[in-house]
Amino acid sequence: MSPRKKVAVLISGRGSNMMSLISAAMSPSYPAEIGLVVSNKPDAAGLTKAADLGIKTAVVDHRDYKGDREAFEHALNGLLKDNAIELVALAGFMRLLTPFLVNEWRDRMINIHPALLPSFKGLNTHERALDEGVKLHGATVHFVSAEMDDGPIIMQGAVPVLEGDTPETLGARVLGVEHQIYPKALELVANGKAKVKGQKVSTTGSDASGSDALIAP
């Protein structure tokens, strides 16, 4: 069995998706281990959750860099390298990244977005989906590129939009899908079964069975 990839999870808040990754990585057969959780906010609730599970945590407070985004990212990048991180998973990390960090971690940094990209990039995705009257909504895991909520798509999961849905009820169903697909997508990346080819991701040996949502691949 190949060595497990060492992953850093970057958060800004409660760490809901972080916990789904940590839970999956508790299995010895999972191809990734969560070696570090980093937040740009010292009071992020996810830091406490990770520390309580014995996972190393760190803070790189963006406010210490007085708006210099690249200086902030150089500090963050140094921390990742000092901890021998191999893959980065963004999980509610509310900072726009510059080309510097994106290029440093090209094809090794992934993100989860609460919409079926390329639709509804940015914020307030559930409100916008309801306003547009779409019948399916969901979540996307993708490799990070220099453009916000862009980059080659690894995995998507969809749920139906129901009559009477509010942003809160729809968001809760989408969050359930996020917790399913993020560990699956990280697994594909960590074991080398998800490879970037041009602007697309080629996957081999993926299995999204056993879900009550529409998940692909």
From TrEMBL:
Annotated residues for binding of N(1)-(5-phospho-beta-D-ribosyl)glycinamide: G15, S16, N17
Protein name, as recorded: Phosphoribosylglycinamide formyltransferase
NCBIfam families: PurN (TIGR00639)
InterPro entries reported in the protein's UniProt record: Formyl_transf_N, Formyl_transf_N_sf, GART, GART_AS
Lineage, top ranks: Bacteria, Pseudomonadati, Pseudomonadota, Alphaproteobacteria, Hyphomicrobiales
UniProt: (6R)-10-formyltetrahydrofolate binding residues: R69, M94, R95, L96, L97, N111
Pathway recorded for this protein: Purine metabolism; IMP biosynthesis via de novo pathway; N(2)-formyl-N(1)-(5-phospho-D-ribosyl)glycinamide from N(1)-(5-phospho-D-ribosyl)glycinamide (10-formyl THF route): step 1/1
A GO molecular function held by the record: phosphoribosylglycinamide formyltransferase activity
Organism annotation: Roseibium polysiphoniae
Domain Formyl transferase N-terminal stretches: 5-186
Chain intervals for the UniProt region annotation (Disordered): 197-217
UniProt keyword Transferase, yes or no: yes
Regions of compositional bias (Polar residues) in chain numbering: 200-209
Active site location: H113
E.C. designation(s): 2.1.2.2
Keywords of the record: Purine biosynthesis, Transferase
Reaction equation(s) it catalyzes: N(1)-(5-phospho-beta-D-ribosyl)glycinamide + (6R)-10-formyltetrahydrofolate = N(2)-formyl-N(1)-(5-phospho-beta-D-ribosyl)glycinamide + (6S)-5,6,7,8-tetrahydrofolate + H(+)
Residues marked Raises pKa of active site His (site): D149
Gene name, Swiss-Prot/TrEMBL: purN
Family affiliation: Belongs to the GART family.
Function per UniProt: Catalyzes the transfer of a formyl group from 10-formyltetrahydrofolate to 5-phospho-ribosyl-glycinamide (GAR), producing 5-phospho-ribosyl-N-formylglycinamide (FGAR) and tetrahydrofolate.
